[in-house]
Write a structure and sequence with these properties.
This protein is an alpha+beta fold. It has helices spanning 2-31, 34-75, 92-147, 157-185, 198-215, 235-251, 301-306, 313-323, 347-351, and strands spanning 194-197, 219-222, 230-233, 258-265, 272-279, 328-333, 337-346. It folds into 3 domains: 2-83, no CATH class; 127-185, Helix Hairpins; 194-351, Heat Shock Protein 90. It is elongated.
Length: 352
């Protein structure tokens, strides 16, 4: 950097000396004679060069040193050591320092983003591998047992085939969910907004899941939903959101538990309706509430697999709701129950 500074200052001094020397020589030659004019002009030009060199050092040396030091820190990825509070605006060099600071901040953010994506990718691959491995090994075990002779045993062969089929179905569900969430995260999900009656749609979901609720000995009921409420959303995706949330409320409930589905005006924004699914199930610890919508996150892993979940349902729900421009809310108390709710736009306000 000292060499760069020396060359820069030398160029500035040389340029100015080149301009003023003829003027000084002409002046002193006119006042005295040729020899004295040359001597005085040379002496004044030299002094001027030294003065300019010193002024240049005062004006640009510290800033050039700063640029050099910061660039070295950027190369070494020591972003925390960078000084980013430079707001002086005297000349183009100050602008260069400011632009360098902005560039370093952008590089730091981009490197953090890439690192986060890389960690996310590694975690995702690990989770997918683990989720695929469990049913694949189970299927392999059942088939090997059948081939080893159990296929001739009528007391177990059908049971083994049924278990193998259940694991095949689990693989299919997992694959479908992976494709769905990949589209959602890539922003490729098409939302076909349509106006429809909320009460009718909720009733259809409740009716489709009544048998499942009875099997789990859970009371599934629909609270009063005004027949006048019409919302704007993708009806198919809306039903899938409801089915996922209601199925979870049934699966993670207690025998004799209850699941209530309803809707009410959203207090913060009157132009929206809040749809809720409230259960008296196991509940979720407060420290896990923010994480339950993460891919493959399970509060109780053994129970989730026993119930046949892929670990992607709530992640898909959250992304689908956000694709509508809406929000998902979760309230829960362990051993008391949970309430999952989300907003949707009213048709009347949507058209306005």
């Amino acid at each position: 950097m000292n060499q760069l500074f020396f060359r820069t200052s030398l160029r500035i001094s040389g340029l100015i000396s080149f301009i003023i020397f003829p003027l000084l020589f002409s002046f002193f030659s006119f006042q005295y004679n040729y020899e004295k004019g040359l001597l005085f002009a040379s002496a004044f030009t030299l002094l001027n060069g030294l003065l300019i060199y010193g002024i240049s050092g005062f004006i640009i040396r510290s800033r050039l040193n700063r640029v050099s030091d910061d660039l070295q820190r950027i190369r070494q990825k020591k972003f925390e050591e960078l000084e980013t509070d430079y707001e002086i605006d005297r000349d183009e060099l100050d602008l260069l320092v400011q632009q360098m600071n902005l560039t370093s901040e952008h590089i730091e953010k981009e490197l953090k983003r890439l690192k986060k994506i890389e960690n996310y990718r590694k975690e995702f691959i690990g989770d997918v591998s683990h989720e695929l491995k469990t049913p694949i090994f189970a299927i392999q075990g059942f088939i090997e047992t059948l081939l080893d002779g159990a296929i001739e045993d009528e007391t177990v062969n059908k049971e083994f085939l049924k278990k193998a089929l259940r694991n095949v179905n689990r693989l299919i569900y997992l694959t479908n969910d992976l494709m769905e969430i990949s589209k959602l995260e890539a922003g490729e999900l098409k939302i076909n907004f349509d106006e429809f009656n909320l009460a009718t749609t909720v009733y259809e979901v409740v009716e489709s899941l009544h048998f499942k609720a009875e099997q789990e000995k859970v009371l599934l009921s629909m609270d009063e939903v005004s027949d006048s409420i019409r919302i704007v959303a993708d009806r198919n995706h809306f039903k899938q959101i409801m089915i996922n949330l209601v199925e979870n409320a049934i699966k993670y409930n207690k025998p004799g538990g209850e699941v209530h589905i309803g809707a009410k005006p959203y207090p913060q924004l009157p132009e929206k309706t809040l749809i809720y699914i409230r259960d008296t199930g196991l509940g979720i610890d407060k420290k896990f509430i923010k994480r339950v919508t993460e891919r493959f996150f399970r509060v109780d892993k053994s129970r989730s697999r026993e119930k046949g979940g892929t670990g992607l349902g709530l992640a898909i729900v959250k992304h689908t709701i956000e694709a509508h421009g809406e929000s998902l809310f979760i309230e829960s108390t362990p051993n008391v129950g949970s309430t999952f709710s989300f907003t949707m736009k009213n048709a009347q306000s949507f058209h306005h």
